[in-house]
Amino acid sequence: MSVEIRVPKLGESVSEATVAKWLKKVGDSVAVDEPLVELETDKVNLEVPSPVAGVIAEISAAEGADVAVDAVLGSIDEGASAGNGKAAAPVIEAKQPVPQEGAAGGIARPATPVASPAAHAAGGGADQTGPAARKLAGEAGIDLASVPGTGPKGNVTKADVQKAAAAPAPAAQAPTPQASAAPAPAAQAPAAPVQRSAREERVRMTRLRKRIAERLKEAQNTAAMLTTFNEVDMGAVMALRSKYQEAFQKKHGIKLGFMSFFVKAVIDALKAYPSVNAEIDGDEVVYKHYYDIGVAVSTEQGLVVPVLRDADAASLADIEKKIADLGKRARDGKLSMEDLNGGTFTITNGGIFGSLMSTPILNPPQVGILGMHKIQERPMVLPAGRIEARPMMYTALSYDHRIIDGREAVSFLVRVKETIEDPQRLLIEA
User: Fold this and answer.
1) What distance in Å separates the CA atoms of residue 336 and residue 233, rounded to the nearest whole number?
2) At what angle do helices 259-272 and 316-331 cross, to 10 degrees?
3) How far apart are CA 276 and CA 128, in angstroms?
4) How would you write the pLDDT of the chain (430 residues) with one tens digit per residue?
5) What separation in angstroms does the CA of 16 have from each of 5, 39, 41, 42?
6) How many other C-beta atoms lie within 10 A of the C-beta of residue 216?
7) Cα-flanking dihedrals φ and ψ of residue 310, to 5°?
8) Which single residue of 67, 153, 248, 384 could bond 71 by disulfide (Cβ 3.0 to 4.6 Å)?
9) Residue of 70, 143, 401, 422 marked active site
10) Choosing from 143, 310, 332, 405, which is the catalytic residue?
11) Catalytic (active site) residue 401
12) Is residue 405 flagged as an active site residue?
């Protein structure tokens, strides 16, 4: 029985996908739940499992095709095995062995007619040449094998020999000028430069990349986006990490990083300035009294923002573990739609790539995003006028000026700065 392979439900607000890669081909045996095809959506890549065991009978949607939810991707002959399926033999066998046999036979048989003129000239035609033609050929020094015969059965006649004798002799010397002209290539003019278009490569944008482009442009076109900056002395956090890292790692099985401190500092600031944790819906402002923090992760496919749900209730260890898990699954392409949906505020860290300062773009419909950057020692003027090299980080808050005033934005960022520079109280939650 033939069973259709269909596009599954793709998640909230996702109605279409692109066939990224078929993992099986027509004629392959498959087991129940074995991955058949990889689909690329606006947010994640997902694998479609086999609904039944059998043999792939047909592939209806080729790689690169756009498909809607519930569209037919192909079909499976349920219960069939490789070699016994209806479609397996024609596709696998018909394309290779049949042409090879035809090619071999074609070469063997045409070889006789192709070689037969030479055979007649060298064998049959020369053997049946009359005495007069032979005598004339001997006197003229002509090889009968090189003379095309026009007589019956390809025999060389006296007229054929006379015609060959009358033909200009330099014909045989034609290779000599070519040989003498052999060095000529060195004097040839240089080849024309290859056009630039021949050195270009066009690659179709992935669905994820197109969606990223659309959303970023949407943020620029819709929001009244501004960015405010500050700098944070990372000395206290770095000293605290160094002091407690071994005990933290031994207790929780994961390293204590900077991101968990920033997540906690951001939540503290969001509680103090709720408009940064809101969104605009038509002519209403929706204030979120929960804290789902998105953490931007760069992958080979593009930037994704998995979400830490209810991050305010999580400890530093919980946050570090969740970030590690989401980051690994993002790079492996194993994130689910649920991992990416929602989010009330986003944190991005360009510092891991060496960025010293940037202006992050909002992640709609969110109205705020915090940018972390590279830690760099800079001379700072401390109390009493003392100058000291301190590990400093520039931070940036991009915000939607439609609902966040400058005072709130600056105060929010200062609150984050103060928490990071005095992190002792956060240890209670570790």
Assistant:
1) 37
2) 110
3) 105
4) 888 999 888 766 677 888 888 999 898 999 999 999 988 887 778 889 999 999 999 999 988 888 888 899 999 998 777 655 444 434 333 344 444 444 444 444 444 444 444 434 444 455 566 666 677 777 777 777 777 777 766 777 777 777 777 776 554 454 545 544 555 556 666 777 778 888 888 888 887 788 888 888 888 899 999 999 999 999 999 999 999 999 999 999 999 999 999 999 999 999 999 999 999 999 999 999 999 999 999 888 788 899 999 999 999 999 999 999 999 998 888 888 888 888 999 999 999 999 999 999 999 999 999 999 999 999 999 988 899 999 999 999 999 999 999 999 999 999 999 999 998 766 654 4
5) 16, 10, 7, 8
6) 15
7) 45, 50
8) 67
9) 401
10) 405
11) yes
12) yes
Cα dist from 28 to 51, 55, 83, 90, 279, whole Å: 15, 5, 9, 13, 50
| Alpha carbon separation from 99 to 26, 92, 95, 96, 195 (Å, rounded) | 20, 12, 7, 6, 38
* Alpha-carbon span 193 to 41, nearest angstrom: 41
| Paired strand residues for 228 | 397
